[in-house]
């Protein structure tokens, strides 16, 4: 169990670090007005974004390991949600000071994660019918539509829709990973709709997230992402996937989840992230100057 928790913590650190690097790469890239997959090609021309993708891959792998080691979804997703605190701490280290409220939010986030870890009970093995994986795969379509609507908006509404859509995509990946059954002949996974659901959810989430980073501050969009990708999979895990609480620890889990989500919500108030100190080369590919890209606070 300890190793599973450590995997979840490592995933959080990887994701939080990747977010800052991806924000740097996104700010150096030409802004896209639509859900254009070619954005990935442009982003892959930016070294910080590529490094961020590498950290995302590591984070994803160790989070799946944590889930396969019988860690409840509500614990793993909440710990992964802690990456918004990692992001804010890195931004502060880069020279953008956090106010007392932000440091309190990070502290509350950390305390909430500890309480959630303490409240986790024994996991029950639940095998989903194949049809549910097809449902998860199909769910990527409305998630993409939500993201498309968000791209037509500006300011806070854009942050809410884009962050929520990305969070739902990552949520699909988490749910499919939690319920994934690896066959003895592992290469047969290529035929599994669960694997395709993981790929579809993660792919649409990363595309929307990359577009969001061009429009809103990284900590703002991350807050909406982590709130969504924590609440939805956690509820599904408890309701249908066999996740349980320790006897008498339901209240502790609810307090922990509340603290974690409040911490993320408070960090959503964090203003513009000053990335220009490490984005000196912004616009070198013909893209917009990052100072001209609209941001919300």
Describe the structure.
This protein has 297 residues and is mainly α. The chain has one domain (2-292). It has 12 helices and no strands. Helix 8 packs parallel to helix 10 (193-213) and helix 9 runs antiparallel to helix 10.
Which descriptor suits the 3D outline?
A: globular
Rg: 18 Å
- What is the distance, rounded to the nearest whole angstrom, between the alpha carbons of the first and last residues? 39 Å
Strand content: under 5%
Would you report the number of β strands? 0
The arrangement of helices and strands along the chain is HHHHHHHHHHHH
Largest sheet: none
What integer is the average pLDDT?
81
- Helical segment count: 12
Q: State the share of residues found in helices, binned by percent.
A: 55-70%
Taking pLDDT < 50 over at least 5 consecutive residues as the criterion, the unreliable ranges are: 270-274, 277-297
Number of structural units classed as domains:
1
Q: How would you classify the helix and strand content by structural class?
A: mainly alpha
């Amino acid at each position: 169990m300890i190793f599973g928790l450590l995997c979840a913590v490592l995933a959080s650190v990887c994701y939080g670090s990747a977010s800052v690097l991806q924000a740097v790469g996104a700010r150096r890239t030409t802004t896209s007005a639509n859900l254009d997959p070619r954005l990935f090609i442009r982003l892959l021309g930016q070294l910080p974004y590529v490094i961020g993708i590498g950290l995302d891959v590591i984070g994803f792998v160790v989070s799946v390991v944590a889930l396969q080691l019988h860690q409840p979804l509500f614990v793993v997703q909440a710990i992964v949600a802690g990456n918004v605190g990692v992001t804010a701490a890195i931004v502060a280290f880069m020279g953008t000071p956090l106010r007392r409220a932000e440091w309190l939010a990070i502290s509350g986030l950390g305390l909430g994660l500890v309480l959630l870890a303490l409240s986790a009970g024994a996991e029950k093995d639940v095998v989903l019918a194949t049809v549910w994986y097809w449902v998860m795969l199909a769910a990527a379509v409305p998630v993409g539509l939500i993201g498309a609507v968000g791209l037509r908006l500006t300011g806070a509404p854009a942050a809410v829709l884009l962050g929520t859509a990305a969070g739902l995509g990552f949520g699909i990946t988490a749910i499919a990973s939690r319920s994934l059954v690896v066959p003895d002949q592992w290469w047969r996974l290529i035929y599994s709709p669960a694997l395709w659901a993981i790929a579809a959810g993660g792919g649409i989430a990363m595309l929307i997230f990359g577009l969001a980073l061009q429009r809103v501050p990284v900590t703002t969009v991350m807050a909406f992402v982590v709130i969504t990708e924590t609440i939805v999979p956690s509820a599904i895990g408890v309701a249908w996937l066999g996740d349980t609480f320790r006897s008498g620890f339901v209240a502790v889990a609810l307090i922990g989840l509340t603290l974690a989500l409040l911490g993320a919500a408070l960090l959503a108030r964090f203003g513009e992230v000053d990335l220009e100190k490490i984005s000196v080369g912004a616009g070198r590919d013909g893209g917009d100057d990052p100072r001209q890209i609209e941001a919300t606070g």
